[in-house]
What does this fold into?
Amino acid sequence: MDDKNPDPDPRTTPGLEPGGSVPPGETPPAEGSTPDAGPEETHNPTTGWAKAPVFLIGVLVLVALVYFVARIWLQ
It folds into this structure.
């Protein structure tokens, strides 16, 4: 195994100013992001499906609560 540090030496790296900052003009121009690469998605039905699962979970929690309260009360 090599004991050398794999990172470049900042003293010999071109395009760095003292202290490690990058001078203006050394960075590439801004480019489009990944979401701009594909077609626009127009069908996204995620707003209405969550009501039923939340309601069912609430009913199950309520049934469990009633069960345990009745079990404690009737002992």
